[in-house]
Specification:
Length: about 400
């Protein structure tokens, strides 16, 4: 017995270090085997759904009892425990957990960790040997939309990826995480979910990952799109799409390998968000740049206005900072200016614009290319030709 354990250990070590050596054991043939995924639950003819587990409220419990929904986080449950709570899962899918939790079980707030998870998801779902039908990621709700948008622009092989979370801890009178998790898995396993981009399953709603944002800080119906509507709903906890698949016009898919070659690897270029208001201090833009930012997104007033600070912005642009101006309004665009020196974000909101700017910089875009990226289609729509500095 001891001998066979050593043989297996040697085999695993060989697999990790190419080139492969054949020891009479069967070849590694699937992504699941290559990545060491353990399939739980359902029988082997059911869809395989990867569970990317990052922690957040869906993992959190409270020592203050069942009424607490603001002070929790002292207790944790694992992805495996969430799965074990729900006997219906195994009748519909096979599930394998992949942990991406940070040490404090808070959530994917670290660009490096989330990018590592993105590379893993891409490998698992999109490589030639993939035997996996879809994925869900569990996430803290505060940055659920950031990861949705990032995955949407980087992992595009048609397989469903669904974001889920919870607004209430599992110790609560009415934990919403079990239903959101189940619905997310059903959505990821549904063949009609293919080619729809990343989606978020929350509170019986199917929301497009490109447009989703957190609209309420504590209510279980916390998420909604800033443009477009929901894609569908859950009925008896099963997904029903009332729209055919479509993708946002403004969606630009980035190449994960190219982005990963940026010196910021394993993270992404530093991009800060500044919030404009009366008395906006343009020196903040220069400060961000001297603090290492390669880009800044400004949440502008109304349709992308900046009350003050033009000189500082111009000076930062000259020194190579990339600037995108969005809107601090919850809905509506920040439309292109006649003679752009920086980008206006269009209908892409500030939090999402930060990620798109990070990916643009990591892809080697200069300011003009970034302007074209954000403004291209919208500039045509408002009959303004691409005419920088003319
Ligand atoms: C394993 O893969 C190698 C190279 O792809 C092939 O030559 C060999 O026949 C395979 N072995 C088995 C048992 O499938
Ligand atoms: C496995 O699942 C399939 C699909 O739901 C079903 O048809 C089959 O009867 C199941 N097999 C077993 C052994 O439960
Ligand atoms: C799972 O499926 C089996 C066979 O159809 C059924 O007997 C069982 O009640 C189901 N379990 C749940 C939790 O629905
Ligand atoms: C994920 O992390 C939990 C908590 O540390 C652990 O119990 C579980 O075995 C891990 N799962 C995998 C697949 O590594
Ligand atoms: C991301 O992966 C790289 C190796 O590819 C590793 O060096 C780094 O520590 C990881 N970062 C995080 C935050 O997990
Ligand atoms: C952007 O385009 C304008 C007009 O074509 C040009 O003058 C300027 O040098 C370009 N800037 C960069 C950074 O390429």
């Amino acid at each position: 017995m001891l001998f066979s354990k050593i043989t297996i250990a040697a085999f695993i070590a060989t697999v990790n270090a190419a080139p492969p050596v054949h020891l009479g054991l069967r070849n590694v043939t699937t992504a699941s085997e290559r990545l060491g995924l353990q399939w739980l639950g359902g029988n082997s003819s059911l869809p395989k759904i990867l569970v990317l587990y990052t922690g957040g409220t869906i993992a959190g419990g409270s020592i203050y009892g069942a009424l607490d929904d603001t002070q929790y986080g002292q207790l944790q449950i694992t992805g495996e425990q969430i799965i074990a709570r729900n006997p219906y899962l195994a009748n519909h899918t096979q599930l394998a957990v992949s942990n991406w939790t940070s040490e404090d079980f808070s959530t994917g707030t670290d660009d490096g960790l989330v990018m590592n998870m993105t590379r893993f998801a891409h490998d698992a779902l999109c490589s030639q040997d993939s035997d996996i039908d879809g994925a869900i990621y569990t996430h803290g709700t505060n940055s659920l939309e950031e990861t949705a948008f990032l995955l949407d622009l980087l992992v595009n092989c048609g397989k469903p990826i669904v974001g889920v979370g919870a607004m209430r801890p599992w110790t609560h009178l009415s934990f919403d995480g079990d239903a959101n998790f189940f619905q997310g898995v059903m959505l990821a396993a549904n063949p009609d979910s293919r080619n729809r981009g990343v989606m978020v399953a929350f509170n019986n709603r199917i929301i497009p990952g490109f447009w989703v944002t957190k609209l309420h800080s504590t209510n279980p119906n916390a998420f909604g799109p800033t443009a477009l509507g929901d894609l569908g709903a859950f009925v008896n906890n099963m997904p029903y799409f009332y729209n055919t698949p479509s993708q946002p016009i403004a969606k630009h898919e980035f190449d994960l390998q190219t982005v990963s070659n940026d010196p910021s690897f394993p993270a992404l270029p530093k991009v800060d968000i500044l919030y404009a208001a009366r008395g906006f201090d343009g020196k903040l833009v220069l400060d961000a740049q001297s603090n290492g930012a390669r880009g800044v997104v400004i949440a502008g007033t109304g349709n992308g206005g900046i009350p003050s600070g033009e000189d500082e912005i111009a000076s930062a642009l000259e020194k190579g900072l990339q600037v995108v101006v969005g809107t601090r309004s919850p809905f509506g665009p920040s439309t292109p200016s006649r003679r752009p020196t920086f980008a206006k974000s269009g209908f892409i909101h500030v939090i999402q614009s930060r990620i798109m700017l990070q990916l643009a910089i990591a892809s080697g875009f200069d300011m003009n290319q970034t302007i074209a990226l954000f403004e291209g289609g919208l500039r045509k729509a408002i009959l303004q030709p691409w005419s920088p500095e003319t």
